[in-house]
Amino acid sequence: MIVISEDSRTWRATRAGGWVAVIVIAVLLPWILGSPANIGYAAQIAAYGVAILGLNLLLGYTGQISLGHSAFVGVGAYTTLLLVTDRNWPYLETLPVAIAAGFVLGLIVGLPSLRLGGLYLAAVTLGVSVVFPLVIDRFQGLTGGPIGIFPSNQFNAPSWFLPNGNAEFRSATAQYLVIIAVTGVLFLCVRNLVRSRIGRALVAIRESPISAETFGVRVGVYKTLVFGVSGALAGAAGTLLMIQTPLANDSTFTSTMSVFLLVSLIIAGRGPLSSALPGGAIYVLLVILIPSWITSAGLFQNREGGGGIAGVLAGVALLVFVFILPSGLVNGLRDVRQRYIRFVPRAGAAQAPAAAESASGGSAPTPPLTCDQSRPVTREQDPVDRPPMRTEAPETLLPRHPSPP
Is 400 within a domain? Predict the structure, then answer.
């Protein structure tokens, strides 16, 4: 097994090389995929990855279950479409407004978390996702109801971007690059958040709310705040989805989306921030690609309920991953990597050979005792002034009065 100390030259080179490879592949991916449809799928993976990132911040760092994220995504999407259609705002300028709207809705939904938890909180958030399409139908004059909102002006590539390329390829590539850039900025912000004092407080709340409150952590404030941040990320995901596909109606953001977002996060692995993009890929695979492949293959055409095959496959995949990889796909890959490559802290680099030998199944040799360690400590060398050991029971422990007959 290879053991690499953190903050070493090898560790910095490995980390820098990994980030450079990820950025290069992300930028060149449209030319690798080629088809505008495949580029659109990649953009949707990034957009849904932002929504799963917010859900992971809520579930993985505070242990709170939410089944209402479809409402947060829908608020961000409708905010963008209304500003673009009625006010002629550019798509990117609506992003801060959508984030603010999602944050406010997240704070409102997060208020029950002060008193509720577990399945009760999940039931409350599920009610929010169920009520949201009803609200869309109730205010048809504003939201369009079942017809929805479809703005005439879409997000198109500027004239200087790939001037000699195909129009569809230029538009799909420009949308993808903008979505990837916003996704990277949001990932960086969340990464800095979880590594700050707020992130440590969230982990403390997840492990033991009572202990966290004992040490001065305002549990109620942080629980409500993380709901707001999660809703803000979901609102940003709604804007990114509208950049790629500017259409929303009452059947777009339903409770089914919330369930599939949660299932995708569990399969990908809650906790690591890097599980957000694999979770987005799993969501697109289950909700978009598999039903499309089944329809194109002509399966279940004359079968009632054949369109629900995606839900069946999602349930089967969830059961398989719970038994095979209970910690998720990303955490499972990390465990496999640690069998061959292990990163240890700089202070623990001296214990790296012992860790490697114990991991390989052998027993690490016990270091020999030095002269100072093997010599017994006398009372003159003991820095702590301890009272002499009593060999007899003190008189104060004896009963002062004789017991009654």
Answer: no
Assigned domain for 371 exists: no
Q: Which DSSP symbol is given to 365?
A: P
Cβ atoms within 10 Å, residue 153:
11
Q: Name residue 342's beta-bridge partners.
A: 3
Strands 2-5 and 341-344: what pairing?
parallel
Q: How many whole angstroms separate alpha carbon 73 and alpha carbon 92? A: 16
Q: Which residues of 11-28 are buried (b: 16+ CB within 10 A; e: fewer)?
A: eeeeeeeeeeeeeeebee
- Tell whether 229 is covered by a domain: yes
**What are the DSSP calls for 84-121, one per residue?**
HHHH---TGGGHHHHHHHHHHHHHHHHGGGGT--THHH
Instruction: DSSP letter for 301, please.
Output: S
65 vs 56: CA distance, rounded Å: 10
Nearest CA to 96 out of 241, 239, 276, 246 is that of 239
Q: What CATH number is attached to the domain comprising 261?
A: 1.10.3470
Hey, what long-range contacts does 283-291 have (CB within 8 A, 24 or more apart)? 283/45, 283/48, 283/52, 284/41, 284/44, 284/45, 284/48, 286/260, 286/310, 286/313, 286/314, 286/317, 287/257, 287/260, 288/41, 288/44, 289/41
Task: Give residue-wise pLDDT tens across range 45-84.
Answer: 999 999 999 999 888 888 888 888 999 999 999 999 999 9
Q: How many CB atoms lie within 10 A of CB 323?
A: 8
- Compute the distance between CA of residue 49 and CA of residue 45 in angstroms, rounded to an integer: 6
**E strands along 145-277, which residues?**
none
Residue 10, in any domain of the structure = yes
> CA torsion 165→167→169→173, rounded to 10°?
100
In this prediction, residue 298 carries a pLDDT of 67
Over its C-alpha atoms, the chain yields an Rg (Å, rounded) of 28
What domain range includes position 245?
Answer: 2-338
Q: Rounded distance, CA 172 to CA 162, Å?
A: 12
For 260-280, what is each residue's pLDDT tens digit? 899 899 888 888 888 899 999
Determine contact, residues 283/258, Cβ cutoff 8 Å.
Answer: no
Instruction: Specify the number of domains making up the chain.
Output: 1
Q: Is 20 helix (H, G, I), strand (E, B) or coil?
A: helix
Backbone angles phi, psi at 251, to 5 degrees: -100, 5
